[in-house]
Amino acid sequence: MLWRRKFMKKRNFLALLALLALCLFGCKQASEEETDQPYAKNDSQTERQAPKYYIDPTTYSVRPIADADPNVVLLTFDDVPRPLPTSNAPTIANHLEDAGVRGLFFANGMYLEDQEGRDAIKAIADKGHVIGNHTQTHANLNDLSAEQTREEIQATNQAIENITGQKVHFFRPPFGSTNAALDGLMEEFGMQPMNWSFGYDWVADYQDAEALTKQTLESEFLQPGANILMHDTQWTAEALPAIIQGLKDQGYQIVDPQELARPEELKDLEL
Q1: Which of 151, 173, 175, 259 could form a disulfide with 52 if both were Cys (CB 3.0 to 4.6 A apart)?
Q2: 8 phi and psi, to 5 degrees?
Q3: Where does the signal peptide begin and end (predicted)?
């Protein structure tokens, strides 16, 4: 019957339109979900190899595991990434990449509140560098309550993890200030506190590239396992290539912070 054929064609056409609308809605939903999550998880750093080094909890120096080369130093950078255009953290990361080495960058949460800061720390992490926690506001923890300290750490952990897709394992307290409350929080969060062996770029006498390079390479504290403190400054960025080359000339390897044992791994190691 003619009317039945027309009815069937119309019903099929409407069904096709409904299916097309459903597909378009699904694509729109997926697109919106991707927009709500601007930073994808960094899968390049999810393959975990056995650690080769650990941080001595007393001296904060780098110690080899098993037969790993002991003649190494660790390069760490605090207060990153300062607001552009004053931030030198991206340049520091590029210098490290050019030299074929990696560093440990301790970020302040207050610098991750704008898009430029988030993009900068994401780019640094994507180069394979490790991002640590340096608190939200760079407050002296000895001036804070235990709950305020918790908030400083949690806020920065959350920001870093949201941006990089990586859990934060290392914490550097501003001014090197530690206390019993911090020790408890580190245990609770499964993080390792880390101060340093030496650093000079915050001292007025060494705030130019030549003086900083000379002092770093001739320091009495430069020895195997040294945990070298640096900051997001112009003179540090300018000095870094010469510092790295000078360390290599003295026979030191730059330890990859990806090879540092994480707190949960330390429990399984016979040290």
Answers
A1: 259
A2: -65, -40
A3: 1-30
Crossing angle of helices 180-189 and 146-164, in 10° steps, is 30
* Residue at 58 is within a domain: yes
Position 47 in a domain: no
Strand partners, 198: 228
Token pair of 84, please?
A: 């552009």
- What letter does residue 206 receive in the DSSP assignment? G
Angle at 265 between CA 94 and CA 125, to 5 degrees: 20
Are residue 89 and residue 219 in the same domain, yes or no? Answer: yes
Q: At 241, which amino acid appears? A: P
The span from the CA of 8 to the CA of 186, in Å, is: 69
| pLDDT tens digit sequence for 42-73 | 444 456 789 999 999 999 999 999 999 999 99
Residue 143 CB neighbours (<10 A): 10
Is 44 a member of any domain? no
Task: Tell me: do 20 and 77 sit in the same domain.
Answer: no
Domain range spanning residue 27? 1-31
Q: Are 111 and 81 in contact (CB under 8 A)?
A: yes
* Whether residue 118 is found in the same domain as residue 218: yes
Could you list the beta-strand ranges (E) of the chain.
53-55, 62-64, 72-80, 104-107, 130-133, 170-171, 192-193, 227-231, 253-254
Q: Is the pLDDT of residue 164 over 70?
A: yes
pLDDT at 261: 98
The token pair at 218 is 């001739």
Residue 171: φ, ψ to 5°: -130, 130
Joined tokens for residue 261: 């044992």
